[in-house]
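Record pair follows.
FIRST:
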Amino acid sequence: MVNETAAPDSPLLRVKGLCKSFKTGGILGPQGRVIAAQDVSFDLRRGEAVALVGESGSGKSTVAKLLLRLEKPDAGEIHLDGREVLAAEPRNASLDYRGRVQMVFQDPFGSLNPVHNIAHHLIRPLLRHRRATSGDARQKALELLSIAGLEPAQDFINRHPYELSGGQRQRVAIARALAVEPDLLIADEPTSMLDVSIRMGVLQLLARLKTEQKLGILLITHDLASARYLADRVLVLFRGRIVEDGPTEEVIRDPQHPYTRALLACIADSEGPRGEAPVRPESDAPMAEGGCPFAPRCPDVMDVCLREDPAPLNVDGRNTRCHLYGEHAAQGQTSSGGTP
C-alpha cells in the first residue's frame, strides 16, 4: 500500500532524532535514567536492507520497538512514505501502519502459538487485514508457505509449531509477516537462535524477498557477518546512538570507529578468527562522566575524548562519530585511562 502522495525518490522509512530513555532504581534506591536511543536518524528505501548492528544492550531492540510503536519515544519523528506516524491517529490508520510494518522475532519457538496449527497462524492475519476472503484464505496461506520455502506447502499447513524445526518455524513466522503484504520488515536477530547449518537459508530467503518483492528490511543483529550477507548499509549502534554508518562493504573493509573495529575483530571468517576485540569488556570499563561514551573502552582514546562528546562527521562519504577524524585527530595524545 504505497502512499500516492510520496515523491518517487523519497525513502520508504525516515527516522529523525529518535530518543528514548528509561527510569532506573526502585522506591528506596537512587533513581536515574538509562538512555536506550539517542538522536537515532536514518533512511531506508524500498528494496534495501539496512542492518542495525551492536552488542547486547546497545539499544537495537529498543529502536525496533519504537518503530513498531510498541514503545513511545521521548522525542523524534518516524515517517513512512513521507507521512509522520507518531501523531495522533484514528484506529484504522494505526492498523494500516501495523500492516505495512511487520516484525520477525528472534525466538521462532515463542513467536508461534503451539495450540494452533500453521493454517491458523496464516489465515488469521489474512482475514484481519482483508488480504483474503474466507473462501480463498487457505489457498493464499499455501502460497505464503511456498514463498517462504516450505514446500510442498500442503505438507506443512496442518502441522503444529512443535512438529517443525527451528528453521521451519522461522520461515512460518516470515510467511505470517508477509500475509499482510508489508512494505517494511523488521527482523530482530532472526537467525541467532537457529543452528549454524540453517542460518544461511533464512538469510537467503530474506535476500530473495528484498529483491523480488522490493521489501524494505531492517536487520537487527550483533553479527556483522549476517549484516554483510544481507544488508546494503550498516548502522553501528553503541549505547543508543549511531557511531558509524555507511555501505556495508566499505564499513567492513575499512571500519572508521574503534567500536566497529572491535565488532569486526569478533568475526570468524574463512581464514580463521580475526582475533579478540581490542577493547575493555563492558563490566571492566569505568563510566565516563562526560565526553565520548566509548572512551573508557577505546584503545585510541585521547584527552579530548574524555572532555568532549564527538559530533557526527562525514568521512569519505560515511558518517562517523569519533574524535580520530575531527580537528583533534593530529594530537594523538592518549589518556592514561587508555588501553595500552
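SECOND:
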Amino acid sequence: MGKSEEQTERFNYHVDESLDPSFKDLTERILPLATYFTSIDAFIEKHSKFEYGFVSHALCAAMRGLLKEYLILITQLEHQFRTSPSFTLQKFWFYVHPTLHTMSNLHSLVMDILDAAQDASEDEDDILIVEGFNNKKDEIPQQIKGGGILTILVDRMTTMSGDLATKKLYVHLLSKASQPYVSMLHSWIHHGEIRDPYEEFMIQERKNVKKENLKEDFNDAYWEARYTIRDKTLPPFLIPFKNKILLAGKYLNVIRECGIAIQEPQQQSTEEVVGKDGVDRTDVNVNSDILVAMDGGRFVDNIEIAYKCANRTLLDLLLKDQQLIARLRSIKRYFFLDQSDFFTHFLDLASAELKKPSKDVSLTKLQSLLDLVLRNPSSVAYTDPFKEDVKVEMSTVGLVDQLLRIINVAGMMEPTPAFSRANRLAESFAFRKENVKMGDVESENEGSEDGVGSGTEKPGYASSVAGSVTGSIVSSLAGSISGSIMGGSNKQPLTGIEALTLDYIVTFPLSLVISRKALTKYQLLFRHLLYLKYIEQLLCNTWTEHTKSFHWRRGSGHPALEAWKSRAFALRQRMLVFVQQFSYYVTSEVLEPQWRNLEANLVKVSTVDQVLQYHSDFLDTCLKECMLTNAKLLRVSYVQ
C-alpha cells in the first residue's frame, strides 16, 4: 500500500455502501477484527526489532501467542466454511465474538503505546529545537521501552480492573513483559550489575565517574551521580521501593570495588537479614493484582532482603573493618587541635619557616617537622595508628577570601534562623568592639590634653614611646590579622602561617564518608582555629616584649606616658581575653558538643546513608555555629 510503519499500525476498513443492509450491520460488527489483527501484527513486527529492548520483545512474544490462538480459531472457522453448507455469518459471529473483546483490548494497548511514542517524540523535538540540536531519528523514546511499557500496562490494568476478562488479559501480559525487567532488577540488587544494553532499566550508570576521582571530587559525584534513577523507565509498582533498589546496588558496587566477594542470593539467610517475622508488607502500597502478576509479590521480599543484606555488609565494612569512628577521632585530633600539645611544639619548631612568604616555604621541611613531632613519644599523637596520613599543605588564598567565595557560590549571604545563637554572640562582640574604639578615642583625647597642660619636659620621648605602643599592638596585630587572613582581598602575599593547612589521606571506601568536600570543611575549621591560636600567641608575645623592654618596666615619671602605658596594657589584655573567650566558644560550645552528638549517632546508626547524613550535618553545623557561613558574621569576626 506504500504506507509507513507508523501508518500500517493504524489500519481502518470500511464497508461498501451498496451492500445489503441485512449483511452490512453484521459485517460492521465483524470487520473491526481485521483492523485489530492488522495493527497488532504490524506492531509486533516493528517492536520485535532488537533496538526496542527486552521488555518490548517479551510483550510482543506474549501478544504473538495470543494472535496464534486467534489464527487457530480463524483456521478452524475457515475449515467449517469450506466443509459445512450450514455455516453462516451468524455462526461466524457467534464463534468470534469472545475473541473480539481480547483483540480490542490488545489493539487499545497498541494505540496507547503508539500515542506515548508520538507524545515523547513531540516533546523531544521541542527540547531539541530549543537547544539547537538535530533530532536523532533512530533513537527510541524511553516511554515505549522497558519500564515505560510496564507503566502503560499497569495503568490500563488499573483503569480496566472492573472488567475481569480484561484484567486477566493485562495481568497475563504484565507477567510476561515484566520478566526481563525483573531479571535486570535481580542482577542489580543481588550483584550490583546493570545488564541493560537498551537503556530500559530504572538505574543508569555514568561510567566516566570513577572512585579515583574522589581525591579531587568536591561534589561527591561518585556517590550521587555514578548511579541515578531514570524516572521515565520506573514502573509505578516499583516507586515505593526505588530508593532501596538504588541503594542496594550502590552498596554492592562499593563492596565489589573493595575486592570483597558478594554473597549469592541463595547464601543470604532470610531470617538472619529480616528477622523471624519476615518482611513486613503492611506499608507496601502496591495493587494486589500487580503483586499477583509479579510472581505473587516475591520481588518485594527480594528487594527488602537484598537492601538489608547490602546495607549491613557495607556498614560493617565502614565501621568495623575500616574503623570509621577511629578515623574521625584521628581527624578531630589534628584538624580541631584536640589535645594539641604536638601542634604547639610544631609551631615552635617551624616558626622561622612559617614567617616566610607561602611560595617560599618548604613543604618538605614542614612535613619533616610535623612527622618528628608526631613520632615524639611524649606526644599524645604518638599512639595514633593513622598519624602517617596527616600531611602539610599551603593554601593559595586567605581564609576569609575562600569562605566568601564559597558563600557567594552557595547563595548563603543572608542569615538564617540557624544562626540565631551566633548572631547574638556576634552582635555582642560588635558592641564590645565599638566600645573599645570609643574608649580609646576618648582616652587619647584626654591624654593629649593632659600632656599639653602638664608641661612635660620630654614630649619627644613620650610621643615616641606612645607611637611604639600603637605601632606594636594596633598596627602590628591589625595588619597581621586583616592583611594576612583576608589574603587575596588586599592583594598581599600570604605568609606561611597564614597559608598553613593540613590534609588527610583517605582511602576507598572511607572516602565516601570523608570525601574531598568533607575534608575541605575540616580544613576551613582548622584554619579558623589556627588563626585564633596564632593571634593569641601574638598577644602573649607582645606581653613578653613589654616585660623585657626597659621603657615598659621602669616608671618614666611622666604622667602622659604612664597613661599611654596603662591604656596599652588594658587594650592588649582586653584583646587577649576576647580571643581566648572566642576560642572557648568555638571549641567548647560548638565543636565538642557537636562531636559528642556525632559519636552518639554513629553508635546507633542503621544505614550507610545515615552515616553520610550525620557526618555532613555535623560539619555544616560546626561551620554555621563558628560563624563561617555568613558574610556579615565573617566581617564581625575578623578585622578588616
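COMMENT: Strands lie at 203-205, 227-229, 390-394, 500-504.
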